[in-house]
């Protein structure tokens, strides 16, 4: 049982760090794009769909940060933002978000998986005591 727990713990740690590293890469990409475009875009005069997409991007970024401390919540928030962005894209452009946006699935799912593994491991530990 000890080897099984150690193996699960190692996989959990790997998933957690893959989620964190991928979140940092995506946050860095967004920052690089904003700086490359001359700073945060002025969206006041944009269409409502563009404003909603920027809001969804902000939600995804918040999820990536939250995931470092609350993996389950961070994963859910990241994926919720991505779903929102894709709904707007489908309604306005008839297609899913393209470019780097699909990559937000990676840390979102990994944070979600890590959070679920944490809950499962805590339940298993409580059964042993």
TrEMBL record:
Listed name of the protein: DUF7670 domain-containing protein
Coiled coil: none
The keyword Protein transport is annotated on this UniProt entry: no
Keywords: Membrane, Transmembrane, Transmembrane helix
Keyword Transmembrane: yes
Transmembrane segments: 17-40, 52-69, 75-92, 99-119
Domain DUF7670: 10-122
């Amino acid at each position: 049982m000890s080897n099984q727990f150690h193996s699960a713990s190692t996989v959990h740690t790997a998933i957690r760090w893959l989620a964190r590293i991928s979140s940092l890469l995506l946050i860095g990409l967004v920052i690089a794009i904003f700086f490359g475009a001359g700073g945060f875009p002025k969206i006041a005069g944009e269409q409502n769909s563009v404003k909603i997409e920027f809001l969804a991007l902000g939600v995804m970024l918040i999820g990536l940060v939250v995931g470092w401390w609350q993996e389950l919540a961070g994963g859910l928030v990241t994926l919720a933002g991505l779903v929102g962005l894709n709904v707007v894209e489908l309604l306005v452009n008839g297609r899913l978000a393209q470019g780097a946006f699909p990559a937000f699935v990676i840390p979102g799912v990994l944070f979600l998986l890590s959070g679920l593994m944490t809950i499962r491991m805590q339940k298993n530990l409580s059964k042993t005591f």
